[in-house]
Amino acid sequence: MTDASLTPATTATGTRSHTRDIGLKARYAAERRFRAYGLAAVALGLFFLFLLLGSVIAQGYTAFWQTSIQLDIEFDEEVIDPDGNRDSDRMVLLTANYPLLAQRALHEKLGVDPDDRAARRDANSLLSQGVRTQLRDIVVSDPSIIGTTRTVWVLAHGDIDSAAKGQFDLTVEESRRRVNDRQLGYMQTLEEAGVMEGRFNTGLFTFGASSRPETAGMGVAIIGSFYMMAIVLVLALPIGVAASIYLEEFAPKNRLTDIIEVNINNLAAVPSIVYGLLGLAVFINFAGLPRSAAVVGGLVLTLMTLPTIIIATRAALKAVPPSIRAAALGVGASKMQMVFHHVLPLAAPGILTGTIIGLATALGETAPLLLIGMVAFVADYPATPFDPSTALPVQIYMWSGQAERAFVERTSGAIIILLLFLAVMNITAIILRRRFERRW
Amino acid sequence: RDQVSVAGSSTVLPYATIVAENFGETFPDFPTPIVESGGSSGGLKEFCRGVGTEFIDIANASRAIRDSEVASCAEAGVTEIQEIRIGYDGIVFASDINGPDFALEPIHMYQALAAQIVVDGELVDNPNETWADVNPDFPDWEIAAYIPGEKHGTREVFEEKVLLVGCEAAGDLQARMDAGMDEDTAEENCYAVRKDGKSVDIDGDYTETLARIDANKEGMGVFGLAFYENNTDKLKVATMSGVTPTTESIAAGEYPVSRPLFFYVKKAHLGVIPGLKEYVEFFISDAMTGPDSPLAEYGLVAAPDEEREATRASFAAGETL
Amino acid sequence: MSATTIIAIVLVIGAVGYLAGAARARMVVGGETAKLHSRPGYYGSFILIWATLPALLLLVAWSSFAPVLIDNQVRDTIPESVRAEQSATQQDLSINIVEAIAEGLRLLDERELQQATAGFVLLRPLLADKGVALAGNGEDWMIASAQQLNALRDTNIIWKSIAVIGLSIVGFTAGLLQIRAQLRARNRVEGVIHAGLVLASTVAILTTVGIVLSMISETGRFFSSVPPQEFFFGTVWDPRFANAEDPDAAGQFGLIPLLAGTLYIAFVAMLVAVPIGLFAAIYMAEYASSRFRSIAKPLLEVLAGIPTIVYGFFALVTVGPFLRDLSGQIAGIATGEVSSFISATSVLTAGLVMGIMLVPFVSSLSDDIISAVPRSMRDGSLGLGATRSETVKRVILPAALPGVVGALLMTASRAIGETMIVVMAAGVAARLSINPFEPMTTVTVKIVSQLTGDLEFTSPQTLVAFALGLTLFFITLALNVYALYIVRKYREQYE
Amino acid sequence: MKVDTQQGFADGTATAVAGSNEFPVKMDGKNVNVFYGDKQAIFDVNLEIRERQVTALIGPSGCGKSTYLRCLNRMNDTIESCRVTGLITMDGEDIYDPSIDVVELRARVGMVFQKPNPFPKSIFENVSYGPRIHGLARSKADLEALVEQSLRGAGLWDEVKDRLQEPGTGLSGGQQQRLCIARAIAVSPEVILMDEPCSALDPIATAIVEELIDELRQNYTIAIVTHSMQQAARVSQRTAMFHLGELVEVDDTETMFTNPSEKRTQDYITGRFG
Amino acid sequence: MKVDTQQGFADGTATAVAGSNEFPVKMDGKNVNVFYGDKQAIFDVNLEIRERQVTALIGPSGCGKSTYLRCLNRMNDTIESCRVTGLITMDGEDIYDPSIDVVELRARVGMVFQKPNPFPKSIFENVSYGPRIHGLARSKADLEALVEQSLRGAGLWDEVKDRLQEPGTGLSGGQQQRLCIARAIAVSPEVILMDEPCSALDPIATAIVEELIDELRQNYTIAIVTHSMQQAARVSQRTAMFHLGELVEVDDTETMFTNPSEKRTQDYITGRFG
Ligand SMILES: Nc1ncnc2c1ncn2[C@@H]1O[C@H](COP(=O)(O)OP(=O)(O)OP(=O)(O)O)[C@@H](O)[C@H]1O
Ligand SMILES: Nc1ncnc2c1ncn2[C@@H]1O[C@H](COP(=O)(O)OP(=O)(O)OP(=O)(O)O)[C@@H](O)[C@H]1O
Ligand SMILES: [Mg+2]
Ligand SMILES: [Mg+2]
């Protein structure tokens, strides 16, 4: 021990007191600035979020209402089954001229002169062409209805829907509008009679793809996305966590693991469309899985999500303090037990965060699906993940390219639905994270 | 596989989906066909992968199949391909509804958009800044044209039917050839588009072009006729060579800028995939592609009667490429 | 018996095996489990693995090979006459019809079956009634083939069930016989888990191999028509227009402008995302109350989940015009002449919007990493009279640096791979420029547009997408190698 | 077990000062209560720390010594659930007063912790950290000199002088703790709080540190938590005895160890309870 | 500073055994060298740990005590850069032999670390973890009894019996370390390695633990690293003195402290070098 140790104290003696200048004012200013930057950053992030959400919701909330018309439809046997052989030939009920039933009912309601062809055309085009399937489904499910009159809400045409929501600029001259003045008059008549109103658009959730906005829905896409997310979750989470555990806890630190590590980081950077090429080559052309199927989409998205999950999981595993590992090993736990009993639970919040981010990215991804045939028009519900289906972002992407005005709001409506999906995932994650999160 | 599988051009996609949807409703026994988007190139590529249920049946295309593609198809065993022409797609120029009318000639577009034009006998980088520079009748708007990106088939039509024609009309093609270029080079040079930001390529679809015009009220965009007809309250269409684009004027051949749309069917699949034959027949029936059909209503320019008749006959006869 | 039933049975055997193994282990030592090498549960798992793993592997192998064998046998039933006139691909199609018929035949009852065997013409309406659509090209011989196919399938299923379930039982017994007190059951079970972990981590390698393989042949074709030096060092991207001096070339495929655009836009995006994200993370980890954090963090994460196409529209209709008009105003104030120096589509717009999207990638990951820095580090610094911000800047961030760098790398990767935002916000014009107010484009945009365009798919114009993809792949690979090196060099472990 | 208090005094008394009244009060706690959430850890403690003296806080594990010590430089502020009531003053000023600056306070009241917590940086940066943020060194040479002095002060210089740029976390436990002491004295605080600073040190290092503490006492006020009654006896002039969050007794160390007035103190220092 | 070894012996000799030859060798190290990367931390050490004895490892900070101790249950395996050469046997078996199951070894050779490292779980789970994975308790009641017994053994039972379900990390430093001791003895290992187990404990808890160590000696073999020569003298029967990675001397504790044969040992225990 030398006496040199005392010099700091002695040199400081004279000035040492709370008058010592430690630049407090500037440092506090810096502190406040720093804190303000932080708060500003969070606020900015949230501001952008709300700006985005606000604009989406403002544009899309109307999509949840669909203009419908209440008609008293007479299921006239003369129209449906003029020859009366519906029992022997099932095609009769399937191919009957159902739109005529609705048109007649509408003409009656509007008092359209049956001889005025132009007026009839205008009136007919108030109705969606979807009435055919709507009425057909009613009749096929209960043929005894033939001959009776029922009150049915039928969908209005997409243009009428847009007009009713005020999305057409009515100041432009009539010939430039999708809806002419006579039709506007009809609409007013129906509205005043209380038989035309915006009703909750359940079809948006249940219908499959359609070229007509009023009968287009996210049903197939929701199922497809659901299948894909389930596949991604079931495959990517365990594989990703297992790979991370191996790399972080078991793998010897050598060239090979370095290569794997670089590889994984790189896979996270590979543009998503390249995964589409991969999926096409491997899953469709090599493994022979069907095109347009959710299973292929799920596999492709799994591969795409894996790096994200692995990177986040490894970071989370790394953050578990070594003393916990030593403690577990010290009481004679095997490495496997150490990992599964102690390290993994402590890393769970981080893993969850990574998984959610990965899943969210996968949920919103379009480009790779383009190459495996999922950016497609699919009208029928997929029964299994092996049947053709689409996905939520694909539906958004496809609708966003449609010409009809009514698709504009539906695109935003679809985005809202996608965000709801996302919100559900996030809330689940928060709940799970709450349960796992421990500070030490 | 029990449903028809279609892939290809995004221009044909809306028509194909209308047909598919109606097909599904009209033939309840057959599942609704799957129609993929992905570009003519992507569609034909899938189409040419081979014959068998794991491959698609129909490729939609907004251009005719190329010889090299046919060859590549044949290599994979896709030898019998039936070509079906479904109608025409009109290409229109439109600007914001509140702007002035444009009476365009190809030469105006050429002078506004070409990378290089001939000024005083010299080939120089395009000096025109505003539409008024091109034609004093036009408004004093800074030139901002939203044209289809090079990936689009529409671009080619635009180049050949507008820029090249304009180039010739201006005498610039000749001037270039006089300057020592051979004809091909001169033509390519004619329709090379300026890259100084006055002309913006759009690789997305027409909604994007519309959004750009919404954002820049002094912009001029290229649209498909169908898209324009759905947005007549927002867009004002320009005449080309004095003709207003309508289905009628295009069908009559008066409006110059249009292109045919196609789809290609694997003959080998016809008897194998349930509903494929029916789908094709349904597609080319007058009920779908005739002048009063839903497709025409949507904006497809129906082919003349005799052409449709010929198409049907050729399909029924099983003619292949 | 369907595959799922077989799997279920095997799993049941496995479950029984688990119980049996544990019970047997206890029995061997007469209840004194302390004498066992491992806990009884491990013996149970040992049997579980023996009973299920080989059987399921067999099932997978069987299920992938048997259809090929069956297919061959069914092909043998194709009449000579047909075989003579049909090409191999046509036979494939015929087999397809046979399979459809076979499916349909299963739906028929005895009487109908009699009817059906009569001929295809009769069969078709019969099946149509059952909702099975058949194509028109069927022939009579196919019905026999279809019956043969059904028969083969039935036998196959029987044998498959017997073999798989048998193997499961054999495994069960074999496992049970091995149980001794000294059996290192835990080590064995952990060995299997370890193998599983190794297998999982090879997925990453396989993916890489798959990606390279799926692009390499097309890239080769591209380079056979376009010389590599023209692609890698070309400064003009204009694939449809040949260089005026060289009319033979298919076009100009200069990578440089795309690469420059990619890096430029990613750089601007990181310039936005890193400060916002990092500051947000710091605020949430160090200053915010846990309540605030628990609300703000998931909200910010929503930003990451919004599909990029939405951001694209946001850029197109909101941010782009806003910046353009703003620049007009500024120019107006500065020079008196209102001319926007920022285009509506520009590097700045794309970078800005992409940056917003990337904020949660930076913030969430960094927040977790920063929170993981041990408390004693904070105490040490605060105890010396450091302010919180000094503690963060000088102690916590350096300690968390490797993790944060990892998070940033991941973010940068996303920026480089992003497509939709760039398409809409920066345009598709491939230009070489250093002005951030003008449009540029990126490699990914061109990959997508060349792939999904209307150009000829055999032409270099389309094939270039593969070359671009592969190039991007190797560039990011090089970047990652470098990043790993940097992280290694500066890694400092705490505790 | 019998604890030999005599032996400790052989050293302790050598530096102890006769009357303690001549030392003014530096820090004073009045009716201090500390709560962790609902749980009270300190009950109504009144304890003064005298200037230029070493005050030792002793007591069984969990009795609140660390907690009380952490109140003195408001390190408890950093624990969200922790709440302090009562009055704690330094030179007569309420240190919990809103006008008091906690950073300045902590710069004046330094701290060495129970677990060594070097920063994951180089040894040099560990020590220079404090002077640097407070701007105590005018030049690089100044800083280097200051680092050397501090490391010498902590008896670590000879061991690390050749590897100042290596990470502080690579040192052994004892070396790490001495590094932390060096780090604390580098900012020359008025008061130094030490929470079992020697619990990870070997006797030789402990002796060095104890000697150092004794020297520091010339200029600084020191409060030290220790488990070793020998150590308390050796280095401190006043000793406070805690038990179950209460202050049992506080007195001159000599009195305390020879003639405690409380039964509990007596029992504790003779090892009779715990 | 003068260290009073006499005092320590008052306790130590009470339990010490006359001749140490009657104790068979439990663990034996022959020519042990340990490297951290290129840096050698242990040089050619030959040290045997005798059955049912307490062997103390002493020496100045950084001399390699912890490193040697960690070789004995192969905890060093977990440090990537660490390499061990030479032969270490337990009951005559080479513990570095590939056929040896390292998990089994660690179950037989328990460890208590320098820094308390409870799991971030409840107190009960902390203690019951070992017995659970080794299947040492047949029933829940068994387990509870075992936990209680272990906690009592570590002198912690009375303090935590009402809050067994609270997290172990919420305890004070000393309590945490005692929890770790309880956790280690809960699996009843053959050998217990303790790395400064008492450095965070107060004298009362230390006395309890020392008493415990003395009791454990009846059935277990113990190696303990300590900085306190009094402690070494009190609890150990054999003492090994390390310096700069070398084993300076090993002998019966009594001989070592009264009549060391090496000058360095003499100097160290009288506090003359470090
Ligand atoms: N962060 C905390 N949250 C809740 N309780 C705490 C916290 N820190 C300490 N305690 C409790 O407060 C009491 C006093 O703890 P403190 O650390 O002050 O004891 P100590 O006298 O320093 O003990 P030791 O000598 O073991 O360090 C203990 O009962 C402890 O469990
Ligand atoms: N993980 C490690 N990597 C590199 N060097 C290490 C590591 N652990 C210890 N050392 C070095 O090995 C030497 C011996 O360290 P060890 O921890 O065994 O000392 P010790 O005798 O236990 O000291 P203390 O009493 O301070 O705990 C020291 O010089 C130390 O710096
Ligand atoms: Mg304490
Ligand atoms: Mg040590």
Automatic annotation (TrEMBL), chain A:
Offer an example of a GO molecular function term for this protein. phosphate transmembrane transporter activity
Give the matching PROSITE patterns.
ABC_TM1
SUPFAM superfamilies reported in the protein's UniProt record: MetI-like (SSF161098)
Domain of life, per the record?
Bacteria
User: What residue intervals traverse the membrane?
Assistant: 36-58, 220-247, 267-287, 293-317, 338-363, 413-432
One matching Pfam family: BPD_transp_1
Classification via PANTHER family:
PHOSPHATE TRANSPORT SYSTEM PERMEASE PROTEIN PSTA-RELATED (PTHR43470)
The protein here is known as: Phosphate transport system permease protein PstA
Q: Which organism is it from?
A: Oceaniradius stylonematis
* Gene that specifies this protein: pstA
TrEMBL record, chain C:
- Pinpoint the ABC transmembrane type-1 domain residues: 259-483
Query: In which compartments does the protein localize?
Result: Cell inner membrane; Cell membrane
Record PROSITE patterns: ABC_TM1 (PS50928)
GO CC annotation terms, alphabetical: plasma membrane
Spell out the molecular function terms from Gene Ontology.
phosphate transmembrane transporter activity
- Provide the alphabetized UniProt keywords: Cell inner membrane, Cell membrane, Membrane, Phosphate transport, Transmembrane, Transmembrane helix, Transport
Q: So where does this one cross the membrane?
A: 6-29, 41-62, 157-179, 191-216, 263-287, 299-320, 340-362, 395-416, 463-487
Q: Which GO terms describe its biological process?
A: phosphate ion transport
Please give the chief subcellular localization of this protein: membrane
Q: State if NAD is listed as a keyword.
A: no
UniProt membrane topology term: Multi-pass membrane protein
Q: Which NCBIfam families match?
A: phosphate_pstC
Q: What's its job?
A: Part of the binding-protein-dependent transport system for phosphate; probably responsible for the translocation of the substrate across the membrane.
The entry sums up its family as follows: Belongs to the binding-protein-dependent transport system permease family. CysTW subfamily.
Name of the protein in its database record: Phosphate transport system permease protein
High-level lineage: Bacteria, Pseudomonadati, Pseudomonadota, Alphaproteobacteria, Hyphomicrobiales
Q: Which gene encodes it?
A: pstC
TrEMBL record, chains D, E:
Read off the InterPro entries from this record. AAA+_ATPase, ABC_transporter-like_ATP-bd, ABC_transporter-like_CS, P-loop_NTPase, PstB-like
Which terms in the GO cellular component ontology are assigned?
A: membrane
Q: Which Pfam families match?
A: ABC_tran (PF00005)
Q: List where this protein forms a coiled coil.
A: none
Q: Which residues form the ABC transporter domain?
A: 27-269
Q: Which CDD domains match?
A: ABC_PstB_phosphate_transporter (cd03260)
SMART domains annotated for this entry? AAA (SM00382)
Q: Which GO terms describe its biological process?
A: phosphate ion transmembrane transport
| Family annotation (SUPFAM superfamilies) | P-loop containing nucleoside triphosphate hydrolases
Q: Which PROSITE patterns match?
A: ABC_TRANSPORTER_1 (PS00211), ABC_TRANSPORTER_2 (PS50893)
Q: Which GO terms describe its molecular function?
A: ATP binding; ATP hydrolysis activity; phosphate transmembrane transporter activity
Annotated keywords: ATP-binding, Nucleotide-binding, Phosphate transport, Transport
Family to which the UniProt record says this protein belongs: Belongs to the ABC transporter superfamily.
Q: What is this protein called?
A: Phosphate ABC transporter ATP-binding protein
